[in-house]
Amino acid sequence: MSDTVLLDAYGIAKSFGAVHALTNARLRVRAGEVVALMGANGAGKSTFIKIITGALKPGSGQVLIRGEEVRVGNPAQARKSGLVPVYQEPSLIPDLDVTDNLRLGDTPKESFMKWVEELGITDLNMSDTIGELPLATLRILDLARALASEPDVLLLDEMTAALPADLVERVLKVVRQQANEGMGVIYVSHRFNEILELCDTASVLRDGETVGDLTIEAGVEERAVELMLGQKIELGERKITTDLRAHSGNPRVKVRNLAIAPKVTGIDFDLYPGEVLGVVALEGQGQDELFDILAGFYPATSGLIEVNGKSMSFKHPADAIAAGLTLVPGNRADALLAQRSVRENIALPFSVRLPTWGALKLRHERERVQFAIDKLQIDTRAEGEVQRLSGGNQQKVTIGRWLATGVETLLLFDPTRGIDVRTKRQIYPLVRELAAKGASVLFYTSELDEVSLACDRAIVIFNGQIVDVIDAKDADEQTLMRAAYGLTSREGVA
Amino acid sequence: ADAHKSYTIGISNTVQGNGWREQMICAMRAQALVEGDVGNIIVAHRNTDSAGQLEDLNNLIEAGVDAIVLNPSNPDALNSALEAAMAQDIVVVAVDAGVTAEGAYILSNNQEEYAYLGARWLFEQVGGSGDIVYMRGIAGVSADTDRDNGFKRALAEFPDINVVHEVFTGWQQDQGKQQMFDFLATGIPFDGVWTSGIDNVIVDAFVESGAPLVPIVGADNAGFVQYLTEVNGLVGAAVTNPGSVGGAGIALAVDILNGEAPANTTVLVDPVLWENGTDAGRATIMAAQNPNLDPEWPVSVTVPGWTDYTMEQIIACEGPGGS
Amino acid sequence: MSLASADSMMVRVGRYLKDNPVVPLLLFLFLLIALLEIMRPGIVTPYRASRDGIVSMFWVGNLIKFAIPLAMLAACQVLTMLTAGIDLSAGIVATVAAFVCATLSSIWGVAPATIIALLTGLLVGLVNGFGVGIVRVHPLIMTLGTGLITTGCLQVYQRLVINAGSEIPAFLAWLGTGRTLGLPNGLFLFMPFAVFILWLMRFTGFGRLLFALGSNEKATKLSGVRAWQVYLALYALSGLIAALAGLLYLGMIRQTSLSLANPLLLPSVAAAVIGGTSIFGGRGSFAGAVVGALIIRVLDTMLTLMQMPEGARTALFGAIILAVTAIYVRLTDTR
Amino acid sequence: MSDVIRKNAWVAGLVALLAVLLVVTKLIQPTFGVSGLESIARAALPFAFATAGMAVVVIVGGIDLSVASMMAVCAVAAAVLMERMAGVPALLIVLALGLVMGFLNGALIVLTRVPDIVVTLAMLFVWEGVALLILETPGGAASDWLEQSIRGSFLVPGIPNALVVTIICVAVVWLPIRRSKLGLSIYATGSDELAAFRSGVAIGPTKILAYSLCGVLCAFGGLSLAALTGIGEPVPGPYLLASVAAVVLGGVVLGGGRGSLLGPLIAVYILRIIRTILTLLAFDPNVTTIIEGVIMVGVVMLGTAAMMRGAQQ
Ligand SMILES: Nc1ncnc2c1ncn2[C@@H]1O[C@H](COP(=O)(O)OP(=O)(O)OP(=O)(O)O)[C@@H](O)[C@H]1O
Ligand SMILES: Nc1ncnc2c1ncn2[C@@H]1O[C@H](COP(=O)(O)OP(=O)(O)OP(=O)(O)O)[C@@H](O)[C@H]1O
Ligand SMILES: [Mg+2]
Ligand SMILES: [Mg+2]
Predict the structure, then answer these.
(1) Cα separation of D80 and D141, whole Å?
(2) Chain D nearest C-alpha distance from A110 (Å)
(3) What values do phi and psi take at A53, rounded to 5?
(4) What are the pLDDT digits (tens) for A107-148?
(5) How many other CB atoms sit within 10 Å of the CB of residue D202?
(6) What CATH number does the domain located at A5-229 have?
(7) Residue A248: its pLDDT value, please?
(8) How many CB atoms lie within 10 A of CB B163?
(9) Nearest of A8, A48, A12 to residue A390 by alpha carbon
(10) What mean pLDDT, rounded, does chain A reach?
(11) Where exactly are the structural domains of chain A?
(12) Domains A5-229 and A253-484 share a fold
């Protein structure tokens, strides 16, 4: 790490109407340094990054690049000044192919291809249309594009949130290596293990204000959380102790020989009432398809799905919901009515069926919605439009909808994506509570420690098949990781 | 004529959904049916501009018609297609308005005269001086321009006549009625109304708002003609503008095909004015009116001396060849 | 995040207007009316004695009268726009309903004619709903296409009834031309209608689904909604409303024509968007559309009464529509 | 290779349909030949330009309801100018006029932040008014060479001049831009405005550019109206709805980002030939209207169904 200050931003403030997203934020990055930008959901991290890189009009404040004051009007200017961001949402053009996307931003193609390979994507076709690629690939392409333009400062906003463990490893390795060669990096993540592994220092935002800087060292978590939240919380691990054999009786969901061409070749498992069944897999092993089928997006190629002993074939999510299976998708943009209120979002399932198209039962609705809001402690200060909530609170709304409606089987696809520690600690007990009341939960997670925090056991999918079933008490990250790579002796069990 | 001849006649018209033009098309069909030598007609009848009419004319030429009878959207715009048609010995007859293509026959209602006749009657009716409301058709359309010329000619003869409101109805009933309501609401008095065929709704506007009626000039549309006999206190005049001129066009085209071309290529059908203030006028109106007819249709369903079909035939609106 | 302690006046006014989008529109409407009064003193204010001695607010009554069918057609646009759709067949459906009603009345009597006219609208609406909801054709194309098809059918039908004459049902004429206490009787139809639409949009499950589909169709499906059912019902309703508006218009104009209500189509779209309805779905207000319709009518009057070339009149109409929406967007969008 | 076919399946289908329709025409009317093709190509001229202009703004994610009005302005301007001055300067002035009108449309959309459909709906009236102010009644006179340039088939033997002119004009306006970064920006903006902004695309200027291109293409459309009729008519023709229909038939997705100008242009010819066929068959014109509507809805329905099935596989 040298002493050259690459980026110095201070006094940054930004308001959206009445909501002051940032009041006084600052950040300093030296050459060769990886700075973690930390903060709870809604603290203003994304907004901060957007302002530095010209994606949002600045409210007030100064940005110095290599000691010189600059006015960054748009992302293109930021790139010219050496600031290259990877935003929280994919920023490639969905209808253009990879080549045209590169041409659009004048990204050198060879260098881009080099980074793509380095980051672990081997099967990229340059004439693929972006909109047809999976989310994880898009994140990697975003990063490769950023790296290819040889930035002075790289700004990564929850870059890894949608990535499976193997790709996360690659990303961390590459970023560290670049930092060692003199690049400055700003790294936003809610995952402590990543921050511990990658970052040198941390800057903590709370309610739009920078409240402290930390040097990253072992045991810094407690302090970071205290700064982020303004209060202490218990971080101690809470191991699940449920006994698998306790699930007597018939499974609620029974899946046999499920195949979905071409990704899934044969999946068998049982999901019992009262059980939280984890799903662990690297990117693209067929878990997306499994959840899509169970949620009723399209029928499987072959195989059997039984719910409460009855064989099912879903043609529409409505069929799945009628059978008690409801999905909380990984991408919350797929679940939320962005311009509508929190209340309407939560109450949406109340009026889906024809007989409920008439007058609303407002009292009943208000009670159920309030129940969900209280249960999840949703911050409703900006409840008029869900898009104004911070990411974490948006995520809570997607779950709260089914809490208010009542579910039998909940399909959670990576529900803690981009969610801060505190909220995560609220979501796990909630999942357990649902299970305790008799619900079944299928819980895909990209954060391996969540298996031991929330699940009874986990199935590991590799190459479209179940390669292992692991009890929560044995589910340390190493075991899960080995299994996820298909390095296991045991064969798939029902 | 040789009874075994079987002509195909192409018809082109660029305004659809207006009673006058629908009557014109029906008259064409009916006349083609009663002409013994017409075997088939092809009707291109839609809402379009001059470029679209050129397309239709060219398609008719492609279809190999023997004659084209058209209601031209513009006198000058269609020459290329009309000249091409005549070069292939296709007889061209323009009805309702003229065309400038050399050699084309024109059988036209005299639009300038139509406006002049009604306007002069109106100006005389108000005693040669007073304020007039002038309700036109569609800005920028040939027929409206011709009528405006006639109106201006009459205006020039009556220096004491003053136009207080001039407005385009777009030949739409609802717009005309609304505009008249607005004029009445201003409280600015006026002495007479000249309309370009949107007429009975104007009478309605007076009646519904309780304003005293003033002399109104309209066309011989079934609805207005009925009002001239029925509405108490209405002094008005209908100027004939028969849509059946289309039927006359077919008759002329067949004559020419049979080698009986008239000496002059231009034949003007002059309008007649029926006023309800005189006994003679009243008698004509009583004889002409037909309450069962589509109210937008002109009541003069035939052009004497030209058309041969019966009332039933034009109403049936069937032509030869099933069209 | 902290809440503002002392917001500037502008921000507060902006927020108020954003929460009550009808207010700036109403202000603008009154401004226009004031302008009209200055232009033609006496047009708005005085009461006018009609022939039978009844005192009536003549111009205001007319303004409301002619705004009603426009507002009803605007309802078609607002409702469909909520789902990011549009109903371009509304104008022709209204025309057909009026034409069918008037011509059939003289053949089969008033009641069957009215019912058949409404059913015609429903039918076209169902076809639209089928295309949009089940075959997934873009609403713009679907309603444009059915509009064309309906026009053709109307022309064919018209040929069958040239000699049937026409009859304007008395109750429609009463609704369309009559006045009670100076106000048009059309309000007897429109008031319940408006209450129904407002209720539908705000307090029913169906209304919720319209907003939901317009903001995120995928999320709505994920919640178990079968979207085609909603689209089918929506466009059928829109067709029915258009037909109803056509019947009222028939009573107002008291004359049939093959293009009677067609000129109302573009203004109905304009009224909806002036009223703050987003063509991208998820946002819309019927109250706004009603004020939008009134604004368009006042503009009509102003331009009719202004002495200027027709070209200038047309251009001015467009310019004012644009100015109103631009100012409105500025005022209500506080970003 | 299969990729290329898959991405252009829609256009390929349209070409096949066009070929079938030409054969059908020939079967119905054995005398149908060069002159028939010429008249179709001529009739297609204003539709082709309106559609090309519309396609560009639809690709950028907008829509321009004022195309027909802009064409009317350009037609009357051409007729008035050409009566008074040499043809070429007049032609350049008209093209510049189209550019300015399109630019204004785009600038108003960007500056006022009012949605495209609303701005251009208002501008539809404005340009219609302007046309009437330029020429109150039909009149003026187009240059002789302009009228001749779209007749016959002397430019490329065997191919109607009108078709050659259409291809050249659209190509001159669109091709240099299409494969350039500007062209990519247009697609990017239509595809995802936010992502485009973050990828460094200047959204506002890109939109203005697209609308300006539309304006220029409408100017060509107006010139073709003047060339066809020899005069200028201030009343807008039926080009708005027809161009929207052709754009969608041509595989350009309303909402932006996808499609090309080729598909819509072929769709224009398909629609024109259908009208020719219906005339040749002496169909009742009222039925013709119904058939045109059914074809429009039907083709889009079939296409949508085919695409949905393709997406499921
Ligand atoms: N367009 C907007 N209008 C109003 N408020 C907004 C808007 N965008 C963001 N906010 C508010 O600003 C605050 C900060 O949001 P920001 O996205 O910067 O936080 P964050 O730290 O990135 O959160 P997360 O960890 O969930 O991503 C939030 O409370 C949010 O509700
Ligand atoms: N370039 C832009 N132009 C206009 N609006 C923008 C732009 N960038 C962001 N916004 C708006 O700012 C708001 C906040 O965005 P932001 O990315 O900070 O969300 P967030 O709270 O961080 O959520 P999450 O953490 O889930 O990403 C959104 O409503 C978005 O529409
Ligand atoms: Mg964030
Ligand atoms: Mg955020």
Answers:
(1) 7
(2) 19
(3) -100, 10
(4) 999 999 999 999 988 889 999 999 888 888 999 999 999 999
(5) 16
(6) 3.40.50.300
(7) 63
(8) 15
(9) A48
(10) 88
(11) 5-229, 253-484
(12) yes
Please return the burial class of D30, using the count of CB atoms within 10 Å of its CB with bins 0-12, 13-18 and 19+.
exposed
Domain ranges of chain D: 11-312
Q: What is the mean pLDDT of residues A381-387?
A: 81
Higher-confidence residue of D103 and D284: namely: D103
| C-beta of residue C297 within 8 angstroms of C-beta of residue C66 | yes
DSSP state of A301: S
Q: Residue B232: CB partners within 8 Å, gap ≥ 6?
A: none
Cis peptide before A75 (omega within 30 of 0): no
Contacts of B42 in chain D (CB under 8 A): 279, 282
Contact list in C for residue D125 (CB cut-off 8 A) is 314-315, 317-319, 321
H/E segment holding residue A281:
strand A276-281
**Residue in the block written with tokens 């205006």:** B155
The pLDDT-based confidence of C21 (bands split at 50, 70, 90) is confident
Interface confidence, given as ipTM, is 0.86
State phi, psi for B81 to the nearest 5 degrees.
-70, -40
List the 287-326 stretch of A: residues with Cβ below 8 A of D.
Answer: 298
As a whole-number percent, the residues of chain B with pLDDT over 70 amount to: 98
Touch test A–D: 3 Cβ pairs or more under 8 Å: yes
Residue C314: band (very low, low, confident or very high) from pLDDT cuts 50, 70, 90 = very high
* Paired strand residues for B11: B43, B69
- The yes-or-no verdict on residue C278 having pLDDT over 90 is no
Contact A349 C220 (CB under 8 A): no
CA A56 to ligand 4 centroid distance, Å: 13
Distance of alpha carbon A494 from alpha carbon D298, whole angstroms: 50
Report d(CA C282, CA D23) in Å as an integer.
47
The pLDDT value given to residue C15: 67
Give me C12's structure tokens: 């507060």
Helix (H, G, I), strand (E, B), or coil: what is residue B318? coil
Pocket of ligand 2 (CB under 6 A): A 46-47, 50, 55-56, 88, 387, 390-391, 394, 418; D 194, 197
What's the CATH class of domain A253-484? Answer: alpha beta
Two structure tokens written together for B270: 């002059």
Helices (H) and strands (E) in chain D, counts: 14, 0
Q: What is the mean pLDDT of chain B?
A: 92
Give me the domains of chain C, ranges plus CATH numbers. 35-332 (1.10.3470)
Q: Do A44 and C205 count as a contact with CB atoms less than 8 A apart?
A: no
Phi, psi torsion values for B268, nearest 5 degrees? -100, 130
CB within 8 Å of C110: residues ≥ 6 apart: C167, C169, C170, C171
Given an 8 Å threshold on Cβ–Cβ distance, is B55 in contact with D289? Answer: no
pLDDT, one tens digit per residue, over A249-295 is 789 999 999 998 878 888 999 999 999 999 998 777 889 899 999 99
| Contact residues, chain D to chain A, C-beta under 8 Å | 3, 181, 184-185, 187-188, 190-192, 194-202, 257-258, 312
Which amino acid appears at position C327 of this protein? Answer: I
**pLDDT at residue A281, rounded to an integer:** 87
pLDDT at D304 over 80: no
pTM, full prediction? 0.88
Residue A234 confidence (pLDDT): 65
pLDDT given at position A475: 84
State whether residue B195 is helix, strand or coil.
strand
| Token pair belonging to C39 | 């232009």
- Going by the DSSP 8-state scheme, the letter that residue C134 receives in this structure is I
**Phi, psi at D270, each rounded to 5°:** -60, -45
Nearest to C75 by CA among C208, C224, C240, C231: C240
pLDDT at A406 exceeding the cut of 80: yes
Q: Which fold, D11-312?
A: ABC transporter involved in vitamin B12 uptake, BtuC (1.10.3470)
Residues around the ion ligand 4 (C-beta < 5 A): A 46, 391
pLDDT exceeds cutoff 70 at C157: yes
